[in-house]
Amino acid sequence: MSFSQLMLPEPLVRAVAELGYETPSPIQAAAIPKLLAGEDVLGQAQTGTGKTGAFALPLLARLDPAQNDPQILVLAPTRELAIQVAEAFQAYARYMPAFHVLPLYGGQSYTNQLKSLKRGSQVIVGTPGRILDHLDRGTLKLDKLRAIVLDEADEMLRMGFIDDVQTIMDATPPGRQVAMFSATMPAQIRAIAQKHLKNAEEIKIASKTSTVERISQRYVLLDSNQKLDALTRLLEGEEYDASIVFVRTKSATEEIAEKLGARGYAVACLNGDMNQAHRELTIRKMKASQLDIIVATDVAARGLDVERISLVVNYDIPYDSEAYVHRIGRTGRAGREGKAILFVSPRERRLLRTIEHATKQPIEQMSLPTGQVIEQRRIESFREQLAQTIETQNLNFFQELVTDWREKLETTDVDLAAALLFLAQKNQPLNVAKQFPELRQPHARGEREERPRRERSDRPERSADRPERSGERPDRGPRVRREMKGDYNNYRIEVGKEHGVRAGDIVGAIANEANIDSQFIGNIKLFDHFSTVELPANIPAEIFQHLKKVYVRKQKLNISIDTGSTTGNAGPAAGGEKRSGPGPRPGAAPRAPRKPRD
């Protein structure tokens, strides 16, 4: 079956063909006809099975181009997925005139978002917290909405956003079309489906993605700001003939290629802005060994077939497991062995597990090459160049120079050779072991830093007026803690029980606005007029200032370091609520009544 057989409009079929997709995936073949017919759809499929195309293409086909108000709303659990979905809509609609899609997620400037909302967009893609925030402010109107999509609904449940999703669903017009996609179907997700979907037939697709057996797959756990250093180490320490480095954006291809070129690599970039002639020239240069490294995006590298490529580096982890399979398939060609290495930050470990599940193969963690390994590789490479030069070049002129210099300088052969070697290697020093300090490895989930224990004699004496530990502090109510890894501070935020706030509201706001994974948000205690939350101690100053301006339940957080003051609070009777994990929190205060909308 082709996309044209699915009765999609010609502009969409043409865009899909240019993106390199020939036939619809199983979830697309099953969902597109139903959504085109205006039916509701409940789809169960793993990440990487083509879900975005399954709902974006048919909903774009039903779009009214003359209407500039939001017609489609897509809810996604993370800003990364929201951006990816918005980019997919834009790519599919490249031949639809006057089309606008707007991603709305935490961390963006409200000013820019408000300007974009006033200009108008037919498609809104956003995270639940920011969408709900705009609904509360009255800056997002859904009265003309035609369809709403819940993408990765089970992930939104895991992150504690499901109540916000319910509120948003209730704010949409009753006649809108609903599409819900989820990798699993827990009871709460099915309850939402039963409440909001009309006569929806469940589509269940099993992922059949597999990888090439000849490809060795490994990953490196690192922080995002370590990627360039890590890439340089890999390219120095790994054996390969040619390599392709995959990134997410066009601008990243140019930036990384430029930085690698400055380090002496024969490198070029490959992205969607390049015309076909330039693309073909770049590939010819790699085949002819004039280039050793290509930095590329997924779309630009589609169909790339160069036998020399023996190493694929996933500089940015793909959100789609099928994209991962296409990427690593650029190596291991013509029966050769291939290597694929994936850079993963701690907050991307979920994507790593999704890829492993989809490919049905574990990806082994690796350590970066050490300074000693890089030094040895440089020495061996230089020795090979010397051997090849001695075998293939006429050295008579240079031999006469060496003899003349040895006599004039009154030195030995060894000292003269050492001096010449020193001059020859200055641009890429051979003695580099000490110049490559080990990169700090971020702690994986569940690990804790080992801290030296203090002897009892080193511990401070308990003050006579200091209350005994009884599980309760006289000024703040019961204190319930869990162990957190790394350095954490206790912060105060100016929103509490009287505002109808829940722990899940605070987790969602901070996770989206500060780009902090929910696993790094510690204990939350709710009081009448304010709350406290444990967060990493090293929050950047610009993020901290941004959090001060974030609103939760129409209250500005105005976050500050907690000094223990109880000013304006009811005291011990206020109690507290422990954040014990994702999902709805038991015992949370009821949601404040919402004002009716006109």
TrEMBL record:
What Enzyme Commission number(s) does the record list for this chain?
A: 3.6.4.13
InterPro entries for the chain: CsdA_RRM, DbpA/CsdA_RNA-bd_dom, DEAD/DEAH_box_helicase_dom, DEAD/DEAH_RhlB, DEAD_box_RNA_helicases, DeaD_dimer, DEAD_helicase_DeaD, Helicase_ATP-bd
Report a single Gene Ontology molecular function: RNA helicase activity
Catalytic activity field:
ATP + H2O = ADP + phosphate + H(+)
Q: Which residues form the Helicase C-terminal domain?
A: 227-374
Q: Where is this motif: Q motif?
A: 1-29
Alphabetical list of PROSITE patterns matching this protein:
DEAD_ATP_HELICASE, HELICASE_ATP_BIND_1, HELICASE_CTER, Q_MOTIF
The signal peptide here is none
Matches recorded under SMART domains: DEXDc, HELICc
Q: Where in or outside the cell? A: Cytoplasm
The GO cellular component terms are: cytosol; ribosome
Show the segment(s) annotated as Disordered: 433-485, 561-598
* Keyword entries, A-Z: ATP-binding, Cytoplasm, Helicase, Hydrolase, Nucleotide-binding, RNA-binding, Stress response
Limits of the Helicase ATP-binding domain:
32-203
Q: Which GO terms describe its biological process?
A: cellular response to cold; ribosomal large subunit assembly; RNA catabolic process
Tell me which residues make up the DEAD-box RNA helicase Q domain: 1-29
Give a Pfam family name: DeaD_dimer
| UniProt feature coiled coil, ranges | none
Going by the entry's taxonomy, the superkingdom of the source organism is recorded as Bacteria
Q: Which SUPFAM superfamilies match?
A: P-loop containing nucleoside triphosphate hydrolases
Job description of the protein = DEAD-box RNA helicase involved in various cellular processes at low temperature, including ribosome biogenesis, mRNA degradation and translation initiation.
Q: Give the record's family classification.
A: Belongs to the DEAD box helicase family. DeaD/CsdA subfamily.
User: Which protein are we looking at?
Assistant: ATP-dependent RNA helicase DeaD
Organism whose genome encodes this protein: Arsukibacterium ikkense
Question: Gene encoding this polypeptide?
Answer: deaD
